[in-house]
């Protein structure tokens, strides 16, 4: 069975995209084959993370960008597959990164999807389109699927929650962030009861963690107390290398001489990836 998780928190900049990319790479290091899906919007940050932004922009300029991730949400996606065959469609949607995993990048067309799905009455049809796609075309082809979600409570991110059910939340140490996570946990309870799906806060990953500071220690204790079972085994260190690597279109796994903080972050991603497989694999 394919392990699925969506990286979500209703706040910008806590490290959702970074976490998706690096956990994906860590799972790859551990021998799993996977794919990342970028639902986080038009900046196409995951494509940038793997140096695929330029080729994607070129495809858009040359009108070679159809079908794309937004097509998956179309009423006519099924027809499109019937006409062209699944392989041809997947070939267009899926990019290969040079770090081992595949990627379905974001697309500007995703912007209008929320508006269109807003008119769909049937709940499962409205929120379950990505899940239908994943069930039909990706399940079984990959060992894992990680979905990068925008920090917004809207229909497209909810599609990510329906498709993945397991939610990973990267958090920083601070009262605002703590509040955001509590809100997310409450929201997940609501998804479970209102939508009758198995949504779960599977892993909370403290990110940009600065060891030995009182702030970090205090908040780690608060997070541990409140989210005990969901906490990741290792926090991810704050590291300038992570920023720089991202700017350079790669993960820190590609650095030849990682700094001490980057090495610690790498180990943390690997430990967290192992634990993720245990938590999700064990549930199925
Ligand atoms: N552990 C870390 N150490 C240092 N910088 C980090 C770390 N994690 C993420 N960053 C940096 O923080 C910034 C925000 O991270 P990222 O883009 O992953 O957040 P996000 O939650 O996806 O944001 P958005 O809500 O805008 O999509 C980026 O510049 C990234 O390189
Ligand atoms: Mg992001």
Topology (SSEs and partners):
Blueprint: E1 3-7, H1 16-29, E2 34-38, H2 45-49, H3 53-61, H4 77-84, H5 86-93, E3 95-96, E4 102-104, H6 113-117, H7 123-127, H8 129-138, E5 144-148, H9 155-164, E6 166-171, H10 175-195, E7 200-206, H11 214-227, H12 240-247, H13 260-283
Parallel strand pairs: 1-5, 1-6, 2-4, 2-5, 6-7
Antiparallel strand pairs: 3-4
Number of helices: 13
Share of β-strand residues: 5-15%
* Ligand set: adenosine-5'-triphosphate, magnesium ion
Instruction: Report the biggest beta sheet as strand number plus sense, adding barrel if it closes.
Output: 7 strands, mixed
CATH superfamily: P-loop containing nucleotide triphosphate hydrolases
Pattern of helices and strands: EHEHHHHEEHHHEHEHEHHH
Lateral arrangement of strands in the main beta sheet: 3-4-2-5-1-6-7
Q: CATH topology, anyone?
A: Rossmann fold
Helix share, percent: 40-55%
Q: What is the terminal separation in angstroms? A: 8 Å
Mean pLDDT: 95
Low-confidence stretches: none
**CATH uppermost class:** Alpha Beta
Secondary-structure-derived class: alpha/beta
Number of separate domains: 1
Cα-atom Rg, whole angstroms? 18 Å
CATH-scheme architecture = 3-Layer(aba) Sandwich
Domain AAA: 6-194
InterPro entries: AAA_dom, DNA_Partitioning_ATPase, P-loop_NTPase
Protein name: ParA family protein
């Amino acid at each position: 069975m394919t392990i699925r998780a969506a990286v979500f928190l209703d706040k910008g900049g806590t490290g959702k995209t970074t976490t998706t990319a690096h956990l994906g790479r860590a799972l790859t290091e551990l021998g799993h084959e996977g794919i990342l899906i970028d639902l986080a919007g038009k900046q196409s940050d995951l494509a940038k993370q793997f140096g695929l932004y330029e080729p994607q922009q070129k495809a858009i300029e040359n009108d070679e960008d159809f079908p794309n991730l937004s097509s998956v949400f179309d009423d006519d996606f099924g027809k499109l597959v019937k006409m062209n065959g699944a392989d041809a469609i997947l070939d267009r949607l899926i990019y290969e990164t040079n770090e081992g995993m595949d990627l379905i990048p974001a697309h500007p067309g995703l912007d209008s999807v929320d508006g269109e799905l807003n008119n769909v009455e049937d709940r499962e049809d409205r929120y379950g389109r990505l899940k239908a796609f994943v069930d039909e075309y990706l399940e079984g082809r990959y060992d894992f699927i990680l979905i990068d979600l925008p920090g917004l409570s809207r229909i497209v991110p909810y599609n990510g929650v329906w498709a993945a059910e397991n939610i990973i939340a990267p958090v920083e140490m601070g009262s605002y962030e703590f509040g955001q996570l509590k809100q997310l946990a409450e929201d997940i309870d609501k998804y479970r009861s209102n939508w009758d799906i198995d949504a779960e806060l599977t892993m909370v990953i403290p990110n940009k963690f600065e060891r030995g500071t009182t702030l970090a220690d205090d908040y780690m204790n608060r997070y541990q107390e409140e989210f005990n079972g969901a906490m990741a085994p290792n926090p991810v260190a704050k590291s300038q290398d992570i920023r720089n690597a991202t700017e350079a279109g790669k993960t820190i796994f590609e650095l030849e001489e990682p700094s001490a903080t980057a090495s610690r972050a790498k180990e943390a991603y690997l430990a967290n990836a192992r634990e993720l497989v245990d938590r999700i694999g064990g549930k199925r």
